[in-house]
Write a sequence for this structure.
């Protein structure tokens, strides 16, 4: 079976809405995914900002099935499928591949700390072998501030050597441009796609041959981030980057996930969007007011967003 | 429905055997659980040393069902049931309670770092409310070197106030006696049971009114640890503690989990026991020889242990 073209550009780790009983809210999720797609954004559903690890495997698969059934193109999807357990990772990855998703974004197993590259190699290798599907494209997910366990160049080198068509790239959420550049320099020429984990590094990444960004704020400041991805060679690219940074600074002044949900709820006139699953807590009204006032001052909008 | 007596003493975070395809090996697991019980040890199955987070929820439930079907008394069990997702935690906790287990050892959700006590309170509260069973006894699991997210006295205070019959104690795997003592001093008088996470602190814990220990090495040095629990008031208690420490030093000189599995495999003449799931890796033969020689020099044995 032939592979689809590589997924590139701006992807959103789609925030996951919950109902009042803390169950995933499928209608709101589909609505938000459709809006993101309408803005030119791809879907890295079930990422850190999706509270994916606060969901069960079955809840994640049901949500993916729901957006597929709603007609969203899997070629625009790179769902998160990396778990602490290879059993869970295999189940989610297999499900994503069979659905035709363009890629799978894979956290390393993150419970044990200080594990060896050999152990991480075996984790990814075991998953690739068990899934056993030529269409599989894995994107390694490096997010040391949260997962603590990270991805090294040594690990990538070994995986690329043994699974050249399958290990397609990475998401670097270290927030450290020097680290992203290191992976680009080491592997970029082989077609290894580096997505930065924040749009604040999008321009730098594009200028160095990167593939785009997968960023929390792509849930809300979507069109503007996509615009810079498309226009990074333009004369006003640096000005665009500065404008993105200003929005990000306001959005991320408290905890990012509840802030994003509050913003989506505000602009879609659907305040129940603010619900998060423990261990996260929603923003206080005072915090939310500061975020929303700050965005208003920047002329921020979410055009075309409506309640589900 | 009335509660069973509190579980106390020495509990083993039972190491989980895997077959050559990395699937849980039920026969070996039952065999090891029965041996542990025969040595006077309780079963904290599905702990850190059990590679529990490397298992799926279904794999964990199937293993618990298997030892129950093998006739092992659930009053001697405190399975680990705390996951990153409340959906998973509720499912595992409900299953353990319905099986009649004496307690449930609950990690905090450990993916997001820097979360608030309010968020952790909501996590435990939500699980307790959803399980909704008077028989439930929760033991909070504090293991900051691995989970990073930890349990504070402020969290325990709130939970004890709202769920006094349900929040029964904790396992402190900080390895810091000052921390264990802090919880004993704050809550011991209310009947809150503190288990230390290493037998190296067992004597100190018993002298301060603690409930016992839940320790990796209880998988192998079982009878000797149980003996100190029973004889901690004896004149030779300090000498017993020193002997336990000497065995632990040898056992833990490399990574603990593969070392334990290698030891069980050696003394049961069943070398396939050494298999671990990624991201862990087995000991090298050289490392294993050092561990086994070290134990032999201390006169270490595992009496009555045989292959499954």
């Amino acid at each position: 079976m032939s592979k689809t073209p590589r997924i590139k550009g701006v992807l959103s780790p789609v925030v996951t809405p919950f109902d009042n009983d803390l169950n995933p809210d499928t209608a709101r999720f589909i609505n938000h995914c459709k809006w993101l797609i309408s803005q030119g954004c791809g879907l890295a559903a079930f990422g850190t900002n999706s509270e994916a690890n606060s969901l069960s495997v079955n809840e994640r698969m049901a949500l993916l099935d729901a957006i597929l059934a709603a007609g969203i193109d899997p070629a625009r999807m790179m769902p998160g499928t990396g778990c602490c357990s290879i059993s869970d990772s295999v189940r989610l990855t297999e499900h994503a591949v069979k659905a035709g998703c363009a890629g799978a974004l894979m956290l390393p197993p993150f419970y044990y700390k200080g594990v060896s590259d050999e152990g991480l190699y075996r984790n990814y290798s075991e998953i690739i072998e068990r899934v056993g599907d030529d269409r599989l494209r894995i994107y390694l997910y490096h997010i040391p501030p949260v997962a603590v366990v990270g991805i090294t160049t040594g690990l990538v080198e070994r995986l690329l050597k043994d699974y050249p068509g399958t290990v397609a790239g990475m998401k670097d959420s270290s927030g450290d441009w020097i680290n992203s550049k290191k992976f680009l320099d080491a592997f970029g020429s082989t077609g290894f796609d580096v997505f930065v984990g924040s749009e604040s590094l999008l321009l730098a990444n594009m200028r160095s041959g990167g593939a785009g960004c997968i960023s929390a704020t792509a849930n809300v400041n979507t069109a503007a981030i996509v615009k810079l991805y498309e226009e990074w060679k333009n004369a006003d690219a640096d000005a665009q980057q500065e404008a993105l940074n200003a929005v990000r600074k306001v959005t991320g002044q408290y905890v990012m996930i509840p802030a994003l949900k509050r913003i989506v709820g505000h602009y879609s006139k659907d305040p129940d969007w603010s619900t998060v699953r423990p261990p996260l807590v929603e923003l206080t009204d005072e915090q939310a007011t500061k975020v929303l006032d700050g965005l208003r001052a920047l002329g921020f909008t979410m055009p075309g967003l409506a309640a589900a």
